[in-house]
Design brief:
118 residues, mainly alpha, elongated
């Protein structure tokens, strides 16, 4: 489908400008896109992705996550905090331990589907 109909001065025609304005009016504004990009960035680290995949199998105590990750406690805590701030994790405190679970149990299905066709 040919959409570009540039005039002699190198500018789009009026129909194209109308179409572009309609498209732009229907997408989120820059602030919303920035927030969404920040959430997506939270998944842009292999350690955080591994935590997400581990929690696909259900709630785990932070001590279990530390053992599964084979990384130092400060490193795992850092990544858990990023995932919490992005809204990917739920947590509850039980005594001195914190238990984590996915806020959306289908997140790994969504990730797999999204990355399947790349």
């Amino acid at each position: 489908m040919k959409t570009c109909n540039v005039s002699g001065d190198g500018k789009p025609g009026q129909d194209q400008i109308k179409r572009l304005k309609k498209i732009i009016s229907e997408i989120p504004d820059d602030d919303v896109l920035y927030e969404k990009a920040e959430v997506i960035k939270a998944l842009g680290d292999p350690t955080r992705l591994k935590i997400i995949y581990i929690l696909t199998y259900g709630e785990l105590c932070v001590c279990e996550i530390l053992t599964a990750m084979e990384k130092p406690q400060p490193t795992v805590s850092h990544h858990l905090n990023i995932l919490k701030k992005a809204g990917f994790l739920k947590w509850r405190k039980e005594g001195v331990w914190v238990h984590y679970s996915l806020s959306n149990p289908k997140i790994t299905d969504i990730l797999d589907e999204m990355l399947e066709n790349r």
